[in-house]
Design goal:
The chain contains 9 helices and 4 strands; from the N terminus they run αββααααβααβαα. Strands 1-2 form a two-stranded antiparallel sheet. β1 and β2 form a beta hairpin.
Length: about 210
């Protein structure tokens, strides 16, 4: 391992442990709220696996902001599914959202459980977006020119934040997001990571690009 890889892993462990400790009350509050407004489902989202480093899939921890079995429900709605795929894998308005979901997402509270993914070594604090395998397969049918860039993206761990996060978040198109992620993977350094970390709080506080 390089000096960068070792330093980054140490930084990830320290940040994730601090993040878990300091956000514990917020995570507890979010858990209680989710069970109150949607008692029939789990606290964490039951989402499909995400793609990590070297193309390996992993269980992505995230607070549930949708109805139980939201993905399966969407798959059973042909018209909505088509709209979802044509609109960069988003629905607005989204009938799957539970009460308070927009606030949970805009404030990035739903992302807090990913500190555990970072601690486990499946993610890093800074890195590319963690993509769904089906999302990548579908988008590459339309953008085959991005195939090589996706391999560059897969060369590093996905992150809780990243260049995509401070540059538009969910408002970005798939190809714009992949180009940013690949750019990060090629240029990554501790200074670059720190720059992204320092810019992240402002983006979270303003809710810019959140969906």
């Amino acid at each position: 391992m390089s000096f960068y890889d070792i330093s980054k892993r140490i930084m990830d462990i320290v940040i994730s442990l601090c993040g878990i400790v300091f956000s514990a009350p917020l995570m507890l509050g979010a858990s209680i709220w989710i069970k109150l407004v949607s008692p029939s489902g789990p606290v964490l989202a039951d989402t499909p696996l995400r793609v990590g480093k070297d193309g390996k899939t992993f269980k992505f921890f995230k607070f549930r902001s949708m109805i139980p079995h939201a993905h399966e429900w969407l798959m059973s709605q042909p018209e909505l599914l088509k709209k979802y795929q044509e609109n960069n894998f988003k629905l607005d308005p989204d009938p799957r959202l539970i009460k308070g979901a927009k606030f949970i997402r805009k404030s990035s509270i739903d992302e807090l459980p990913q500190f555990f993914n970072i601690l486990r070594g499946e993610m890093s604090f800074v890195g590319p977006r963690a993509y769904y395998p089906f999302e990548v397969d579908k988008q590459l049918e339309t953008h085959p020119d991005l195939k090589d860039l996706m391999q560059v993206v897969y060369s590093v761990k996905p992150g809780l934040t990243g260049l995509w996060q401070i540059s538009g978040r969910s408002s970005l198109s798939f190809d714009a997001r992949v180009k940013l992620d690949a750019s990060y993977a090629k240029k990554r350094s501790l200074l670059y990571d720190l720059m992204i970390i320092f810019k992240t709080p402002l983006v979270v506080l303003t809710g810019k690009g959140a969906y």
